[in-house]
Amino acid sequence: MNKETYNYLYRLATVFLLTTMLLGHSRVAFSRPGSFVRTPSALMSYNVNQYSIGYSNDLIHTKNLTATNALFFHAYLKNGMACGMAYSKHAATSISDNSPASELSFHFTKQVYQHNNFIINAGVQDILFENKYENQISVFLTLINKNIKLAEGYTLQSAVGFGSGRINNDSYYYQEGIDNNANIFLGFSIKSPFLINNGGVKFLIDYDGKGINIGASVPVTKQITFLGAITHIENFSKFNQYLNESTEQIYSDAPSISIGVNFKIPQKHKQKTLGNSSLQFDVKNTETDNECLLIVEEQSNAPLSVNSDCYDVALNSLVGNLNRSFQALTDSLLLLEQDLETEKKQNLSLDFQTKILQDSINMQYLNQHISQSEMNLGMKYLSKSLKYFYSEEYDLALIEVENAQKYLPNLAYAYARKGSIYYKIGDLDRALVNWNVALQLDPEYSEVRNMIYAVKKEQDIEILSK
Question: What predicted TM-score, i.e. pTM, was given to this entire model?
Answer without folding.
Answer: 0.55
